[in-house]
From TrEMBL:
HTH tetR-type domain location: 5-65
Keywords: DNA-binding, Transcription, Transcription regulation
Residue ranges for the DNA-binding region feature of this UniProt entry: 28-47
Pfam families: TetR_C_33 (PF13305), TetR_N (PF00440)
Name this protein carries in UniProt: Transcriptional regulator
Amino acid sequence: MPRAGLSTDRLVAAAAELADEVGFEGVTVSALARRFGVKDASLYSHVRNLQDLRTRLALFVGGEMIDRIAVAVAGLAGRDALTAFAGAYREYALRHPGRYAATQIRIDPSLAADTPEMRRTAEITYGMLRGYGLDEPDLTDAVRLLRSTFHGYCLLEAGGGFGAPREVQRSWDKAVDALHMALTHWPREARGGGAQGD
């Protein structure tokens, strides 16, 4: 029988706090049970196992992150939208490293496609990129470019990987400018024997 006061939502919110405190790898069923002062078995009425807990955590924080990005890009387009999107992404990743790490785990595609968090992430991200006139398969390629650039930069910055005297913010701004130029002059995928029109 579920323990009074515990719920799946409450456990996932606590897991998000725990991730920022001890790192994503430190989020376990046992660690969460200790946080609530209960036995591990008390949590299994709310989460099936560690994988289920971490998947729920990834979806929760992914939704939290995209909500902040959505607020930042609202009403913007082109370079302004890209700059706001990138800034909100970086701020979340640096301020919430444990939560951010959860967003990087692989989620079963069949599950991901059916969650509001993933649908909203696709809607906001693809909506921003359509402002550059991109369609598939270029949209997918552009998403991969942005994700790898943002993720790599944030990991290096968080880990103190930038040792040159150049201000990290200046380099970030240049990187976003370079992405804007790449998106503006995107090499279109050829279709039906001819290049896609502008």
